[in-house]
Amino acid sequence: MYVKSFIARNAYGHLMSALTAQHDPNSEYRCHLCNSPLVFHRSTARSRPWFEHTDAGLSEHSRQHCPYINVAFEEAATVNVLRTLVPKARPLVQRGH
């Protein structure tokens, strides 16, 4: 399982939000950062719609450099701890370059 993404490129190369993608859920979507294929997940009663990377179609470059795939272990652990403390909060990750 990889980090949820709420934005992707459609088959025409246009940026799409997951909310907009609900109108065409069977279209082909790709990561806006690494261009890997994404799977669209419809909204449920408990979550908004989102995109997710799959193992199929991932290049070695994507595995090493896409922030949706290569999540630091410590960062994921911190997010999980915060979810238990503040269940409805959404994480905002900022990285300095």
* Helix amount: 10-25%
Beta-strand fraction estimate: 15-25%
Measured between the Cα atoms of the first and last residue, the distance is 26 Å
Tally of structural domains: 1
Radius of gyration: 14 Å
Question: What coarse outline follows from CA principal-axis ratios?
Answer: globular
Q: Count of DSSP helices?
A: 3
Instruction: Walk across the major sheet and give the strand order.
Output: 3-4-5
Count of strand segments: 5
- Can you tell me the residue ranges where pLDDT is under 50 for at least 5 consecutive residues? none
Query: Sheet with the most strands?
Result: 3 strands, antiparallel
- Average pLDDT confidence is 84
Class by SSE composition: alpha+beta
Listing every helix as H and every strand as E from the N terminus to the C terminus, the arrangement reads: EEHEEEHH
Q: Can you tag this structure with a few keywords?
A:
alpha+beta; 5 strands; 97 residues; globular
